[in-house]
Amino acid sequence: MSSRRDFLQKISASAISLPILGGTMSIQDFYSQPYQGPMLRVAIMGLGSYGNRVAEAMQSCKKAKITGLISGTPSKIKEWSSKYNIPEKNCYNYETFDRIKDNPDIDAVYVITPNGLHADQSIRVAKAGKHVICEKPMAINAKEGQAMVDACKQANVKLLIGYRMHFEPNTLEVIRMRNEGEFGKVLFFQGLCGFKIGDPTQWRLDKKLAGGGAMMDIGIYAINGSRYMVGEEPVWVTAQETKTDPVKFKEGVDETIQFQFGFPSGAVASCLSTYSMNNLDRFFLNGDKGFAEMQPSTGYGPIKGRTHQGELNKPHVTHQTVQMDEMAGIILEGKKARVPVDGEEGVKDMKIIDTIYKAVKSGKKESLNLT
Ligand code: NAD
Is 321 inside a domain boundary? Predict the structure, then answer.
């Protein structure tokens, strides 16, 4: 999707409202009416595959725009600055980007680099006095994640994590139904997340840059999804790892992990994270009065699914467009996301990942306190 017009065509099917974008205004009205409010000016750090997707989606944003670039590859800077009309004075590399502190054209930096670099880069952005938007996983463990939260607090800047599903209309509809008791007492969640990974030389299979394996990259969707679908924080974790290819998936790089959570209400979750199977993007929530199933549940969409009441039918919106408009509302107008996307939310997922790895090693039920 490359233009605002395409974007509008996709959402014009029916009116939906999101909590931040327009309050009671429908998302359709928000994107079709002129906007004169504040604009979040964002520098993108890491001009790779997901950076490209975010930049394309931001062309349809109303509250956020790209005003800066950070990359270690001069040819990418050249190509992007001409494509997105970014002046040379707003372009940096990984050595020079601390100077962003003197650049009044940039309010926030969106960190879209390999996981193992997020903490250091986000802390440098905070020290430069700019808001941080950081991709998931926010870091490679909870200690690093907490250091990011602390640095942003100290610098008095916001830290938001790229949890795009927290703004996705069908996901929010299931959460609304759960909050209103339509599933009754929630008893069980299943999250299956995985894909078959290709090139063995990519950073995603390098422990130092990735922080782990499938769990950091795709399993995190089942973790985060367990929390927003059940609506509670897990209090215990069990986990089992299997590895079929120890050459491709080296020590510390997980191929497949099955994990289970227990929640304070007694609800349980059973999840799968893998780099060795395709067609795994499925959530199932079961309560004593009803259910929701979503497949695909966390891909770029359209998200599809049904509940005991029928099909989920909210229209597809480009996740990253809405995410960035919502995040602009959070940063510039102090709005609150219905499902949090702040640094503390990211640290909870990191604590769970730390505990899953601990449970794999110990073979025991490990307890967890996230509240
Ligand atoms: P990618 O490999 O396509 O891009 C990474 C970028 O970082 C590249 O431009 C690369 O040049 C740059 N980079 C800087 N320093 C590097 C180094 N030392 N080694 C390797 N690359 C370096 O990866 P991607 O798919 O864009 O993923 C980037 C981040 O975005 C990851 O944290 C990933 O988890 C996240 N992501 C999120 C989503 C989502 O849906 N929210 C989707 C994909 C990726």
Answer: no
Ligand 1 centre from 169 Cα, in Å?
26
Q: Is 339 strand, coil or helix?
A: coil
Q: Which residue has the tokens 């025991």?
A: 364
DSSP state of 128: T
Q: Is 351 a catalytic residue?
A: no
Instruction: Compute the distance between CA of residue 137 and CA of residue 64 in angstroms, rounded to an integer.
Output: 23
Task: Tell the residue nearest (CA) to atom 7 of ligand 1.
Answer: 113
Token digits of residue 5: 């017009």
- Cβ–ligand 1 distance for 164 under 6 Å, the answer yes
pLDDT digits (tens, 9 = 90+) for 321-359: 999 999 999 999 999 999 999 999 999 999 999 999 999
Query: Taking the mean position of all CA atoms in its chain, how far away is CA 312?
Result: 22
Amino acid 141 reads N
Instruction: Please give the structure tokens belonging to residue 220.
Output: 């995190």
Q: Which of 222, 180, 166, 164 is nearest to 307 (CA)?
A: 180
The answer to whether 62 and 35 have CB atoms below 8 angstroms apart is yes
Instruction: Give the torsion through C-alpha atoms of 342, 348, 353, 357, to 10 deg.
Output: 150
Instruction: List the one residue out of 163, 161, 167, 131 whose CA is nearest residue 144.
Output: 161
Question: 1 pLDDT exceeds 50?
Answer: no
Position 5 in a domain = no
Phi, psi of 273 (to 5 degrees): -125, 125
In total, how many domains does the chain have? 2
Structural domain includes residue 142: yes
Residue 272, H or E segment: strand 268-274
Whether the predicted model's global pTM rises above the 0.90 cut: yes
**Annotated catalytic, 136?**
yes
Q: Are 325 and 63 in contact (CB under 8 A)?
A: yes
pLDDT tens profile 80-109: 999 999 999 999 999 999 999 999 999 999
- Active-site residue (options: 221, 228, 275, 357): 221
Q: What is the dihedral of CA 178, 181, 185, 187, to 10 degrees?
A: -20
- Per-residue b or e along 295-311, where b marks 16 or more CB atoms closer than 10 Å to that residue's CB: bbbbeebebbbebeeee
Residue 74 sits in which domain range?
A: 37-162
363 lines ligand 1 (CB under 6 A): no
Q: Considering only CA atoms, which of 350, 342, 347, 351 is closest in space to residue 369?
A: 351
